[in-house]
Design goal:
By secondary structure, the protein is an alpha+beta fold. Helices cover 24% and strands 25% of the residues. The protein folds into 3 domains: 145 residues, no CATH class; 161 residues, Hedgehog/Intein (Hint) domain (Endonuclease - Pi-scei, Chain A, domain 1); 87 residues, no CATH class. It contains 11 helices and 27 strands. Strands 1, 2, 3, 4, 5, 21 and 22 form a 7-stranded mixed β-sheet that branches.
Length: 535
């Protein structure tokens, strides 16, 4: 239960007793959510705006009539994941002090985009040549096993072991060369969707994968399960983007336990088996009032530039079917205790697959009424927000403070090697950021502060030369990448190398970058100190 939960039609608590007091535990439904107090205040303001819109623009009665946050309880909202156009319907049932949004695993999984079958062919460039290969081979060969990541739904991910680029397409249909920023391995769902186009191209993806379709001259993203025969899709032939149509869409059993994906910078698209499609990315989402998404919206509001159709509620999923969502959300145990055999098997280091039948999981309930309710838990709590209500990472303002706190904590925990943590920060974050920003500085464009015209090189005149109406603009030209953004992690990298036992190789990488930055911007100015500074 949350900090505050209003009357939303429930008459029985989780054990079947009548609801009589606030301390009882009530099981929430898959599309019920609890929002942060500040979110409730914001939505209250939006509700007032929507009521005013109904009255003044449409001549209708107000709908929400919100005077306090509790009035939002029971109202419907749209949950939307980033870089998509498909929202999921949900209901506000309460509020929490914790700076999070509490929701059912099914709700989060319904908003996820997933991946490709391992044999899907992609084309990548390592800086010298193009190579076609199965996505399984590319991901596994370029997965950095020394520094893998693991998210809360069992997805393994890492940065590529070395730089690669691939073809992407923006919302206007223009081909772009974009960098591959991450590779990932996911658990496969029970079924995939196989698409066949009129030109004979075939693609197998997970049901919630982001697919691209043509929509009156621009590309928008929809879930694979919503793509149907006859829909126009962009394909890559020769060196051009042309239009093709979906001829057949059918569900097929997953041929293996894993599916694969990559993250592509900027446009978040790539060519797979000759078809331009979306990619896998983040889990963070937003919510908006249902009425806001239904009437306070027009395609005319969407920007015409790249990515303009993303993050807009063009499609709405009204009901979550557990059989259609990602398999990760079904691998959740729902028992109120673990049998003794689980503990004895753990002592014997038994294989997980040998004891999986001992634990009641959602996957075993699919197709029965129990797939949606009767989920139990092993440890009770008086308040799900009793712990820290906000991440320390959001409370600290500077990267120096965040890094200092992380390394200070690592030094206090006996099970953690602080030197290893410090070197991982350098290799996975600071060094890559320094190298990337230095490269971006050398390739940057310049921008006019007056008319926003972009220049590949600084005009010889030193001012904007674009002709506007009555004459030349003559606006100031400024760089788009600044010295400060290139150097922002340099001093922290130096400090880490001084304070911790970093490998000689990593130290030399930092030194080489330091020399490259010095050769670009010159030596740092030495601050002149007076006698008073030493007193």
């Amino acid at each position: 239960h949350g900090d505050e939960m209003g009357p939303v039609g429930d008459k029985k608590e989780t054990h079947g007793y009548d609801i009589e007091k606030g301390s009882q535990v009530v099981e929430r439904h898959p599309q019920d959510i609890l929002v942060h107090d500040s979110c409730a205040e914001w939505l209250g303001g939006v509700a007032k705006f929507m009521d005013e819109l109904l009255v003044k623009c449409y001549g209708l009665d107000p709908f929400y009539k919100v005077t306090k946050p509790e009035d939002l309880i029971g109202h419907l909202v749209i949950g939307l994941a980033p870089h998509t156009s498909a929202g999921v319907l949900a209901r506000i049932v309460g509020f929490t002090r914790a700076n999070v949004g509490y929701a059912h695993p099914f709700f989060h999984a319904a908003k996820r985009r997933n991946c490709f079958w391992g044999d899907t062919e992609i084309e990548v460039n390592d800086g010298s040549r193009w190579e076609k290969l199965p996505i399984r081979k590319f991901v596994l060969e370029n997965f950095d096993l020394t520094r893998p990541g693991l998210d809360r739904l069992g997805t393994y991910y890492s940065d590529p072991a070395r730089p690669f680029w691939t073809r992407a397409v923006d919302t206007t249909g223009q081909i772009r060369l974009r960098k591959v920023t991450s590779v990932s391995v996911h658990r496969a769902p029970q079924a995939l969707i196989r698409f066949t186009t009129s030109r004979g191209k075939e693609l197998v993806v997970t049901p919630d994968h982001a697919m691209l379709v043509w929509d009156t001259g621009y590309l928008r993203k929809i879930r694979a399960i919503e793509l149907k025969p006859g829909d126009p899709v962009p394909v890559f032939e020769g060196s051009c983007v042309i239009s093709d149509t979906i001829k057949l869409a059918e569900q097929v059993p997953s041929p293996e336990e894993r599916v694969y994906c990559l993250t592509v910078a900027d446009d978040h698209t790539l060519v797979a088996n000759g078809i331009f499609t979306g990619q896998c990315d983040g889990d963070e989402d937003c919510i908006m009032l249902l009425l806001d998404g239904l009437i306070n919206f027009s395609r005319s509001f969407l920007p015409q530039n790249r990515g303009g159709s993303m993050d807009a509620p063009l499609v709405l999923t009204s009901r979550i079917d557990p059989a259609e969502i990602d398999k990760e959300a079904l691998n959740v145990d729902v028992c109120d205790h673990y049998p003794i055999e689980v503990y004895t098997s753990a002592l014997a280091y038994a294989e997980p697959k040998t004891i999986v039948k001992l634990i009641d999981r959602v996957e075993n309930r699919i197709g029965t009424p129990a797939q949606l309710e009767g989920f139990q838990f092993t440890h009770d709590t008086s308040d799900i927000s009793a712990g820290p209500i906000e991440s320390m990472y959001t409370q600290m303002k500077t990267m120096t403070d965040k890094l200092g706190a992380e390394l200070d904590l690592a030094e206090k925990i006996r099970a953690v090697d602080a030197d290893d943590v410090a070197e991982r920060v350098l290799n996975t974050h600071f060094i890559r950021d320094l190298m990337g920003n230095l490269s971006a500085f050398s390739k940057q464009k310049f921008r006019c502060t007056k008319c926003n015209t972009s220049y590949r090189r600084m005009p010889l005149a030193g001012k904007c030369t674009k002709f506007k109406g009555k004459g030349i603009c003559n606006g100031n030209i400024i760089p788009t990448v600044h010295e400060g953004s290139v150097k922002k992690y340099l001093e922290m990298s130096r400090e880490i190398c001084r304070k911790y036992a970093i490998s000689e190789y990593t130290k030399q990488r930092v030194e080489v970058i330091d020399l490259a930055i010095e050769s670009t911007f010159g030596e740092e100015k030495q601050q002149q100190l007076g006698l008073a500074d030493f007193m």
